[in-house]
Design brief:
This is Crystallin. The protein has about 120 residues and is of the alpha+beta class. The chain has 4 helices and 7 strands; from the N terminus they run βαβαβαβββαβ.
């Protein structure tokens, strides 16, 4: 939790192209989705983000990053938690056309917390 508004910590496994776009947005927002990406999915735990960054992003891009960021908790209640696999495989599914609204509720900056090569 940061500041006066209760926040929830989220993670996002990220490849180098998406991370470059986040940097261009001053580490405060996620870039628009590509046409073949109907949802933006941050994950609810660091371990799951690590597995994706290490096992998928590295294989496909040569490098994978785990990012961490805070979002207003009350706002997140509009997105039910999705169990995408086992008990700890938890995501939020944000429709691509709501990403600007989602970004407006990020508190602070998006930070890189892990890197895999």
């Amino acid at each position: 939790m940061t500041g006066l508004r209760p926040t929830t910590t989220l993670w996002r496994p990220t490849g180098p192209e998406e991370l470059r776009l986040v940097e261009e947005l001053d580490w405060r927002a996620w870039p628009p989705r590509l046409p073949e990406q109907p949802i933006f999915y941050p994950v609810l735990n660091e371990d799951y983000a690590i597995r994706i960054a290490r096992d998928w992003n590295v294989k496909h891009s040569g490098v994978g990053f785990v990012t961490r960021f805070e979002v207003e908790t009350e706002f997140l209640s509009r997105y039910p938690v999705q169990q995408a696999g086992g008990q700890t495989i938890l995501e939020l599914w944000v429709p691509a056309d709501e990403l600007d609204l989602f970004n407006a509720h990020i508190v602070g900056k998006i930070e890189v917390v892990r890197e895999f090569r």
